[in-house]
Specification:
CATH class: Mainly Beta
CATH superfamily: monomeric porin ompg
Radius of gyration: 24 Å
Order of helices and strands: HHHEEEEEEEEEEEEEEEEEEEEE
Shape: elongated
Number of domains: 1
Structural class: mainly beta
CATH topology: Porin
Number of helices: 3
CATH architecture: Beta Barrel
Strand order of the largest sheet: 1-2-3-6-7-8-9-14-16-17-18-19-20-21
Distance between the termini: 40 Å
Helix content: under 10%
Strand content: over 45%
Amino acid sequence: MRNHRTAALAILAAAVLATTTPALAQREPRTLGADPTVGVTRVATRGLNFLELGVGARALALGGAYTASAEGLFSLYWNAAGLADLEGISAAASYQDLYENSGLTNAFIAVGVPIGAGAFGVSLTRFSSGEIQRTTERFPDGNDPSFGSTVEWIGSAVGVHYARRITDRLSFGVTGKLAEEGLDFAHARWVGADVGTVFRTGLLATTLGIAVSNLGGRSRMEGSAIERVLASNVRDPLFPTTRELPASFKTQGLQMPTIFRFGLRTDLVGAAESLLAPNPSHSIVLLSELNDAIDGPITPVLAVEYGFRNLVFLRGSKRWIREDRAPFDFGDGVAAGAGLRLPAFGRALWLDYAFQTLEPLGSSQTVSLEFSF
């Protein structure tokens, strides 16, 4: 809806302007006193926040509790160590429609190839705000001939991944990534890395997963909205000059949204080593996870996945998103989904769907597929 797009544009514009010198603020500086009743947080202090959205319908239906499962090419986002189990050349893609009719989307594609004792993969993540009407002070209703009628915020990340098994129980993976976000007139680029490991303990049918994502340095906004030229024919008493002077806003450097993930997977029913009982027709997997993002509080997740004959899957999860700090209730952070695993040419085709709730933004839906050649 138009209201969702307008809100999204306002948030993105505020993120850009907040990093610049307060040129539009009052000339008289004033100090804001600390509020002792409000705790200190780091919310909205990092760039590339689209990298925290998650990818893959299976993982999102599980609330993101995917670090210990780390299967298939969608593990490239959550824990690259899962790439070590790749059996053949594979391709995957997912598409996420965010917050009902907001126009915000998040897409992911990846390919993977087993190489020697390990596997190699390449991925692309792309976030888009959709086209939003662009307004200026001279044209508050839009259609300024100097700037165009629409604007779009784009975030993208290209990842190169490698993983291998260290032992029959321990796998390790690493990712290098190049990421960018912004508008055509203001954007920033980052270089970062992910590392992850999966350990099949052999005890109580339990697997541990640990991953650290988005390790990187700082980057600043650049572009025509940041860098200007003071013309020589402009008589400004602060800058008396007879020649053109280059100038730029002093933007704040932002780091990548580093996330630490610790996951636990327990096979209750299904496989021979399952905790309760082996079963060739039914499987039940319990997953739990703690996500500690540097720009937010620790977030626990609890999820379950049921499978029938390794063909049909049902999933559900609850993610606790600190209801005490925002107008959330228990229903927010709930996700559910389903999946099909279809044999095709001796390989498997995965089709998955996920539905997530997060008011007042609205629900999000994700579809994904994965195929091994």
